[in-house]
Backbone:
């Protein structure tokens, strides 16, 4: 299992004194050791992909960088984060965002074909101007040329990390966190672009090209960088549904059809709408033209420049492969395409059904329940402590089928707009929690304690892994203590009266002086 309780809680902020005493190199090495212990698989390229506790895959260095960013990055409400899967229009959206935000300091040439003499794109590639958390800012050497605290607003950053694993400060509700611009791409075109990119590096390393059949198999199994693809897209889609003022969701194909409209939406979203003078002067079209593939690929910074990443220098030209919509048809067989389409339909259909306008009908809608039941039935399974199969949810936790289908926390519970509702969470010592979960029913032979410990450490317990469960609610408590109350079972046992008072305050029903004098608190605390 990835986390140990002591290691995780000191890293994640439960032990603030221990965290403050940890140096950056020590923190980085701690996470590197942790990722090295994760399950690993072969991916598209010649490097291992490690499986994060949240269920996504990545190479060691960027996964470590993402975890260090989670521990270290302090977001501002004015920050803007570009989020994408690799090879999904990342370079283009970075270019459009930078050119839009900085259009007054660095005006784009409004005459088609004219040179942008003083524009930063002449000397720096988009990935140098809008840097990745996991590849550039939080590396082993912490290769940050400028102190992030000294950067003027709005600061622009980027990431390939799934929404569930973004730095806590980015998604925090108190303070407001920051804004996120997400771009998704057709899964088949995304795969082919990834496959071409990976084969370029396989050739560099003297390896045979990866057959497209193998690439499709890996993709459908979720074994691609920062994938599975569907989990990544749905994570940001759900975040967009919960708070469209905070998460902007673009589709690459729609951007290609009408880039100017998307530049306008982007400007509105970041609080910098185009003025009537800019509209009349052609500024929107000038930004589109400046950031076009044809224009950017001719820039000196693209042709001869290189971007320093955690894993080495990469020529800027490597990022500029013409992103043709529908190019997958030149590489995938009809059967391969059908297989990917079937998975996409199953994953996205359930998500779209769940977004029905009338939430009151959700609990009684047979089609909704069946859609999720079919989806859960297709998930990987394993044996657990009891006699029922455990299914692995896309977010990395395990459960038997019925409660997984019925008990997923509704988006409205955790929504920031409207305010959602209050959550009371109780965690228990992990060893006592494990012992309480033994198999004692169904007339089966008792499960050996050694087997139970192994399953527990592998995260194969209902609604586990234990550590992910606890840390998920702990992070939510840190982000909004007025909304999420966090209790420890052992502390409740030690002073039940104090916890009853905290509980009453939290739910807005504090005890009156008459109730205190009359022994109501002690009576409730003593109730068995």
Residues:
């Amino acid at each position: 299992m990835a986390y140990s309780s002591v290691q995780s809680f000191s890293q994640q902020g439960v032990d603030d004194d221990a965290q403050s005493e940890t140096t950056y190199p020590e923190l980085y090495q701690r996470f590197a050791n942790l990722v090295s212990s994760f399950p690993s698989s072969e991916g598209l390229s010649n490097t291992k992909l490690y499986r994060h506790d949240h269920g996504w895959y990545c190479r060691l260095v960027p996964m470590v960088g993402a975890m260090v960013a989670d521990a270290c990055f302090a977001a501002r409400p004015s920050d803007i984060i570009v989020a994408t899967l690799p090879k999904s229009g990342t370079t283009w959206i970075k270019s459009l965002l930078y050119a839009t935000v900085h259009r007054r300091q660095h005006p784009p040439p409004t005459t088609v074909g004219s040179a942008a003499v003083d524009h930063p794109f002449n000397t720096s590639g988009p990935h140098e101007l809008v840097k990745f958390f996991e590849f550039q800012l939080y590396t082993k050497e912490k290769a940050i040329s400028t102190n992030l605290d000294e950067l003027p607003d709005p600061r622009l950053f980027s990431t390939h990390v799934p929404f569930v694993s973004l730095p806590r400060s980015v998604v925090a509700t108190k303070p407001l966190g920051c804004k996120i611009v997400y771009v998704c791409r057709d899964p088949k075109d995304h795969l082919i672009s990834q496959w071409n990119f990976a084969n370029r590096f396989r050739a560099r390393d003297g390896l045979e090209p990866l057959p497209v059949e193998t690439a499709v198999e890996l993709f459908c199994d979720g074994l691609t960088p920062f994938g599975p693809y569907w989990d990544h897209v749905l994570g940001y889609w759900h975040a967009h549904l919960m708070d469209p003022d905070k998460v902007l969701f673009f589709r690459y194909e729609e951007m290609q059809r009408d880039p100017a409209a998307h530049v306008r939406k982007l400007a509105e979203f970041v609080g910098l709408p185009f003025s009537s003078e800019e509209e009349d002067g052609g500024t929107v079209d000038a930004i589109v033209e400046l950031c076009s593939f044809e224009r950017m690929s001719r820039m000196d910074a693209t042709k001869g420049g290189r971007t320093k990443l955690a894993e080495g220098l990469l020529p800027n030209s490597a990022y500029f492969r013409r992103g043709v919509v529908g190019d997958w048809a030149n590489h995938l067989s009809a059967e391969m395409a059908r297989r990917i389409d079937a998975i996409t339909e199953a994953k996205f259909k359930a998500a779209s059904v769940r977004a029905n306008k009338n939430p009151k009908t959700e609990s009684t809608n047979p089609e909704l329940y069946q859609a999720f039941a079919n989806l859960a039935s297709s998930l990987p399974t394993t044996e657990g402590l009891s006699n029922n199969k455990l299914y692995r949810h896309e977010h990395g936790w395990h459960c038997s089928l019925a409660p997984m289908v019925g008990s997923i926390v509704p988006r409205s519970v955790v929504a920031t707009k409207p305010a959602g509702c209050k959550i009371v969470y109780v965690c228990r010592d992990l060893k006592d929690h494990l012992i309480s979960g033994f198999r004692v029913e169904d007339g089966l032979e008792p499960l050996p304690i050694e087997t139970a410990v192994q399953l527990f450490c592998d995260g194969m317990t209902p609604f586990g892994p234990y550590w992910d469960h606890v840390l998920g609610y702990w992070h939510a408590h840190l982000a909004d203590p007025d909304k999420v109350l966090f209790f420890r079972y052992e502390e409740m046992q030690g002073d039940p009266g104090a916890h009853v008072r905290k509980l009453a305050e939290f739910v807005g029903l504090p005890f009156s002086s008459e109730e205190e004098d009359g022994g109501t608190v002690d009576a409730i605390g003593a109730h068995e």
User: Anything to note?
Assistant: The first strand starts at residue 40 and ends at 42.
